[in-house]
Recover the amino acids of this structure.
């Protein structure tokens, strides 16, 4: 059974750690009005639903659900990334990934599924279990699975200690059951590597957590950045992230240049 609008808004307020007064102050409404909405004594207007959702940083997909629960039509579209209506965004992603070569880069959806990748990503995808490359390819699974490229990550404990809390924050922030299931799955992979201790402390000289991976007898060292679409008004685009890897040392820079040639 679908939850009423008041319960949904209260759940999001709890998730964000806000009191009714906190939310009221942020949304410039009275705490009494917030209380009446949450208890069902008042059905909020369409604009009020959107105002409260904005202050609660509710994802666009969930905003549509809030609107439906309040009796209004959803306003945020969701289309496949290769839909003609998203042609410009798709082309932009391709240009970003190609322009980053000879360094690896990929585009992911909100569940860590691979959408696009450039040719340089082969240094990560090389020699993994073909079953893990069956669509949809999940990069969180691929990176931490014993049959993925995890055995080639030299600082796997550090990488796991970074990625798992990041995924846990996503689960807490979105309440997404698919992300929750993915978290429980990859958390269990640690046993395959005897991961029972604490991860080494990162080197203070590093500008970001490095990823050290072996590739055909060579060791490559990367750091990464994440780019998202600003002010996206499409559910698909809101969930897209581009992860770009940069060489963290001269040896990696030279080797990637040689591989491209």
């Amino acid at each position: 059974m679908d939850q009423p609008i008041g319960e949904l808004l209260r759940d999001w307020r709890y998730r964000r750690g806000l009191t009714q007064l906190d939310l009221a102050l942020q949304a410039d409404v009275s705490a009494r009005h917030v209380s009446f909405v949450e208890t069902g004594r008042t059905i909020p207007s369409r604009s009020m639903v959107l105002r409260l959702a904005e202050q609660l940083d509710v994802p666009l997909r969930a905003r549509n659900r809030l609107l439906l629960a309040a009796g209004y039509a959803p306003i945020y579209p969701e289309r496949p990334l290769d839909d003609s209506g998203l042609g410009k965004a798709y082309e932009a992603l391709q240009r970003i990934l190609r322009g980053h070569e000879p360094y690896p880069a990929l585009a992911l959806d909100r569940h860590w599924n691979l959408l696009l990748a450039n040719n340089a990503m082969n240094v990560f995808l090389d020699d993994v279990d073909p079953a893990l490359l069956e669509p949809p390819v999940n990069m969180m699974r691929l990176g931490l699975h014993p049959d993925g490229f995890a055995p080639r990550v030299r600082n796997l404990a550090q990488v796991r200690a970074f990625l798992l809390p990041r995924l846990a924050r996503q689960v807490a922030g979105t309440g997404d059951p698919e992300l929750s299931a993915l978290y429980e799955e990859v958390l269990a992979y640690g046993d395959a590597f005897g991961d029972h201790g604490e991860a080494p402390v990162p080197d203070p000289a590093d500008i970001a957590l490095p990823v050290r991976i072996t590739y055909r007898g060579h060791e490559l060292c990367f750091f990464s950045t994440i780019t998202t679409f600003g002010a996206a008004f499409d559910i698909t685009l809101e969930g897209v992230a581009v992860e770009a890897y940069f060489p963290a040392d001269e040896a990696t820079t030279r080797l990637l240049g040689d591989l491209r040639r």
